[in-house]
Amino acid sequence: MIRILTLGLAVAALVLSFGLYHVKYRTEAAGNRVAELRRDIAREREHVKLLRADWSNLDNPRRLAILARRHLGFENISPRQITTFEQLVKLVPEREPDLAVYSSDALNGLLARLPDEKGAPAYDSDALTDLLIRVRGENARERGGDGAKQ
Fold first, then answer.
1. Cα dihedral 15, 20, 21, 26 sign
2. CA-CA distance, 120 to 13, in Å (whole number)?
3. CA proximity to 85, closest of 68, 97, 102, 71
4. Phi-psi region for residue 104, left (φ > 0), alpha (ψ -120 to 50) or beta?
5. Model pLDDT, residue 126
6. Helix or strand holding residue 87 (H, E)
7. Residue of higher predicted confidence among 138 and 49
8. What span, in angstroms and rounded, lies between the C-alpha atoms of 46 and 49?
9. CA pair distance 65, 82, nearest whole angstrom
10. Is the model's pTM score more than 0.70?
C-alpha cells in the first residue's frame, strides 16, 4: 500500500511540476508581451508628439495665408470689401432693374412677404446677398472685368 501511495505521490508531483512549469512559461510570455506593448505605446506617444508639432507648423495662419495667395490667388480682406446691404444693392448694374430699383427696406419687405412651400417667409439675407454678389460677378464678366476686384 505504501508503494502505491508513493507511486501516486510521485505521479502527482510530476503533474504538478509540469503544471507549474507551464504556468511559469505563460506568465513570462505575458510579461514579455506587456513589455513589448509598453515599448509600442511609448513609441506611438513619441510619434503623436511629432505629429502634433508638425500639425502646429502646418496649421500656422501665416503659412496658410502664403499658400492661399500662391496657389489659390486669395488676398487678405481689405476694409473696402466690407459693405452694407444698401451699398450692395447700389452695386447691382442697372440692367437688373428688379433688384437695383428697390431700396433695401422695400426689398426686405417684399421678400419677407413671399412664403415658401410650408407657408413660412422665404427670406434669407445670406442667400439674397450671395445672389446679388453672383449677379454682380456675372455682369462684370460679361463686361470683361472681374466681379471680385471692383
1. positive
2. 88
3. 102
4. alpha
5. 63
6. helix 85-91
7. 49
8. 5
9. 19
10. no
Alpha-carbon torsion 26, 27, 28, 29, what sign?
positive
Cβ-Cβ contacts under 8 Å for 63 (sequence gap 6 or more):
57
The span from the CA of 142 to the CA of 123, in Å, is 28
Rounded Cα distance between 111 and 31, Å, is 73
What amino acid occupies position 96?
E
Per-domain boundaries in the chain: 2-69, 78-142
* Rounded distance between C-alpha atoms, residue 89 and residue 105, angstroms: 11
Rounded-to-integer distance, Cα 31 and Cα 52, Å: 31
| C-alpha span between 148 and 78 (Å, rounded) | 12
Q: What are the cell numbers at 16?
A: 504538478
What gap in Å lies between CA 124 and CA 30, rounded to an integer?
A: 64
Rounded Cα gap, residues 48 and 143, in angstroms: 53
Residue labelled with grid coordinates 510579461:
31
Q: Would you say residue 139 has pLDDT above 50?
A: yes
**In this predicted structure, what is the pLDDT of residue 60?**
92
Question: Tens of pLDDT along 33-92?
Answer: 999 999 999 999 999 999 999 999 999 989 988 888 888 888 777 777 777 777 777 777
